[in-house]
Specification:
mainly alpha; single chain; 11 helices; elongated
């Protein structure tokens, strides 16, 4: 049977599983963590929950992204956002990318939205902005967020890069190699050395060719050791 690459999961985490995955990638929430949870699945699922009205999660997601965006696999996150049927989710990621405009990996996110800016709050945005102004973090982006009435700043509720690297192996390898599919594959081979090439590619949403090269290099280093 030929290998078919799937870059978008059949199902994204919700509810308690999403909470456990977010804890696993460095959100300080109550509960047990899922170790080495997929980063892009987790933050994209969090954006869906957040835009639907869970501003506590959305606040933490904004802080998490500010701290860890350099280690995000931008190509995969872009495809997740591009494939979303929810306009407001696409607008959110367009705005988040605009905030990181100095990182060229996020430039193509601008195409996720065109036209006038979208309000974060379903009601009352004009009133809140007239009273308190805009959240300065989103000024000039696709998303209009009132100061104080939308997203709190809680960076202390997110693990630091060094702390997250100590508990999340794929994140550690992204620091070591860079935010790539290869980094994920090296981490997953360390977690399970018996993974087949096809299964390695599936778990990391990567190509068969990349998985084949990583597995070959892994075996060479294993023999050298």
């Amino acid at each position: 049977m030929s290998f078919k690459r799937e870059i978008i999961p059949a199902m994204l985490p919700t509810g308690e599983r999403l909470t456990a995955q977010l804890i696993g990638i460095g959100f300080r929430l109550q509960g047990e963590a899922i170790a080495n949870a997929n980063i892009e699945d987790s933050i994209f699922a969090a954006s869906i929950e957040g835009i639907a009205g869970d501003y506590r999660v959305l606040s933490l997601l904004v802080d998490w992204f500010d701290i860890h965006s350099e280690r995000v696999l931008a190509d995969r996150l872009y495809h997740l956002a591009l494939g979303s049927s929810q306009k407001r989710v696409r607008v959110f990621w367009a705005a988040m990318a605009q905030r990181k405009s100095t990182d060229r990996r996020f430039l193509k996110f601008a195409g996720l939205h065109s036209g006038k800016r979208i309000d974060l709050l379903p009601k009352g945005t004009k009133f809140h902005i007239a009273r308190s102004g805009e959240d300065e973090r989103f000024v000039g982006t696709a998303l209009r967020v009132p100061e104080g009435a939308g997203l709190r700043r809680r960076p202390s509720d997110v693990l630091s890069p060094s702390r997250l690297a100590s508990v999340h192996l794929p994140y550690y390898y992204r620091l070591l190699i860079g935010p790539t599919y290869r980094a994920n594959m090296w981490a997953h081979l360390e977690l399970d050395t018996d993974l087949s090439t096809a299964e390695l590619a599936r778990r990391c949403y990567g190509s068969f060719a990349t998985a084949w090269h990583v597995k070959r290099e892994w075996n060479i280093l294993k023999e050298a050791a």
